[in-house]
């Protein structure tokens, strides 16, 4: 896909998935800014040399990539990244928030500092980035925002103990996606999310994996970032080179908020008596869209 004349920001872009996204977009002609705090393998510390080394490696491949080593946990840090990009390239067309951090803490042990750290990167950073990117995206011919969620958060069968804060942050990005899909619809700002499965540092993998490779997620992100993607408000799940798209959609026949077109119950006992039908998927209940 041709990204000539486009400018993209990719957070968490120095390694793993973000680096793969950056290489692919730049190979397609985009000018790319990769931002990465350069934390260690457990997400601690900062090292700007990490992102600058990654940018230099991509530049050596003949690609137009710049590195940014700022902290995106604050409004000001996010503003600086957007300003850096505009000063360098004069425009912004694609914003990909890939940066993330996973830590484990059971609900009984949850502390404020741990929760704040999770929310900084999964809730506040995408909000501040979108705030400061928005005026520039409004001037783009094909503006695109891609956020990052997780199957671990969306599906109860994939959850793991200790991921309550992580899951809250990843689900928050879907709320942001839905809200901004609506807010940006008239201006053509498409906002989607990727839910990637890949063996990276967040999995504790440092060697080249033989499955679940980051580059096998990248084609889906490239599509979402392109002008060929005309949809907004979708979650693209990607794993082992396979893709499936899903979204939050209302049941057929609903007249929100007064008529959910489903099971009526006047009291708790009626809810209890109808519970097997209330929780039954529509297709099994004989309702089709």
What does the secondary structure layout of this molecule look like, with pairings?
Layout: E1 7-11, H1 16-27, E2 31-35, H2 48-60, E3 65-68, H3 75-89, E4 94-97, H4 112-137, E5 144-148, H5 151-154, H6 164-183, E6 190-197, H7 218-225, E7 235-239, E8 242-246, H8 268-278
Parallel strand pairs: 1-2, 1-4, 2-3, 4-5, 5-6, 6-7
Antiparallel strand pairs: 7-8
* Oligomeric state, counting identical vs distinct chains: single chain
CATH class annotation of the largest domain: Alpha Beta
The CATH topology of the largest domain is given as: Rossmann fold
- The helix fraction, in percent, is 25-40%
CATH architecture of the largest domain: 3-Layer(aba) Sandwich
Rg from C-alpha positions? 20 Å
| Class based on secondary structure composition and strand pairing | alpha/beta
Detail the poorly predicted runs: none
Largest sheet, spatial ordering of strands: 3-2-1-4-5-6-7-8
The dominant shape is: globular
CATH-defined superfamily of the largest domain: NAD(P)-binding Rossmann-like Domain
Strand content: 5-15%
Average residue-wise pLDDT: 92
N-to-C terminal Cα separation, in Å? Answer: 34 Å
Task: Give the count of structural domains.
Answer: 2
Biggest sheet record = 8 strands, mixed
Tally of strands:
8
Helical element count?
8
Order of helices and strands: EHEHEHEHEHHEHEEH
Protein name: SDR family oxidoreductase
GO molecular function: oxidoreductase activity
Family: Belongs to the short-chain dehydrogenases/reductases (SDR) family.
Keywords: Oxidoreductase
